Amino acid sequence: MDVWVDSATAVEMDVFVLWVRGLTVDQATLCRTAALVEHTRSIVQMDTQSQFMLFNALEPYLQTPTTLAQQCLFTLPADQQHALVQSYYRLSTRLLRELVGKSLTSRTRKDLDEYSERCSLTLQASRRQFDNVRRVYKALEDKKGSLCEAIQQEFLLDEGLAKLYAQLLFLFDNKLSLDNKKLDTLPFEDIAFCVEQMIVHWTDAENQQDLEKQFLQELREFKYIVWNHKDYLTVQRKLVCERFEPAVQPRVAAALKLVGRNMLGLGAGLSHSKELRDVFEDLLELVVLPFHQNGLMTAHVMAVFQALQETFSQLPLSGELQTRFEPTHTRFLLALAPVVVRLQCRL
Prior knowledge:
The chain has helices spanning about 15-20, 25-30, 40-65, 80-90, 95-100, 105-110, 110-120, 125-140, 145-155, 160-175, 190-200, 215-225, 230-240, 250-270, 275, 280-295, 300-310, 320-345. With about 350 residues, it is mainly alpha-helical. The chain starts with 12 loop residues before the first helix and ends with a helix. About 30% of the residues are buried.
């Protein structure tokens, strides 16, 4: 009689985390046995080496997670497979901040030793993360539909981690830059938040890697229509200022005299790759700073954007133009408002 014994592969997740961090066997052993006697340390080192050999053998399957459940070499429970994949694809936001504005090229990969030192990461960990980002980017290039859902299906990542990779794909695909020195202290968490607003409000369900072309066309046309209505911006300022206390109105009016026109130009410029690449710098210089320099607090800025949306129907445009452009106007502001507020909080 044949007997089949299914023996699960022994994976120690605490050791796997050390391997993912890019530690050597000796370094990982020291982490595990800092207070142990020499004899015990030698046993732990053998165990660590055995685990590292196992992880190296598993790595090709981790790079293509859908094959992990299909392979027959290692018997791994489903929950452990899930934990391995999430840990392998985890990202350091400090490293991601270094990569913003860069290209996913071999040249950038060669510079990872410099970035690793600044981020307190091992070079091995930085390379793993860089390669993971590049792998996901190549797999999802020109992918239609929801990026987050596609990443979840292709790489079996949790929604939060998949969303982070989707934001990265949008960043790299559109070559968004943060070269302005005033943006140097902007953490990656804020960048990711801003990018998410753009993905949600400025792309469509069919293509989340690029801004929707029809939306961009409407923004361009709206700019020229408004510029041909000389009273539009004046009426807009008046309607918005009426929402504030008299003491605040002069500051709101002064800020909107710049911001109103600047937002039109910013929206119209999004269809050009250079303007889109510099969108963070333009937002800072053209929208955030005028609010800040006029002493408007976050609550004031939020109220301004709310008023801009609510008063659109009262602006000097024909009924036909109102109906046509109100959805585009609202959609533009729905992303712009939280982004501007987030950036202003960092000044």
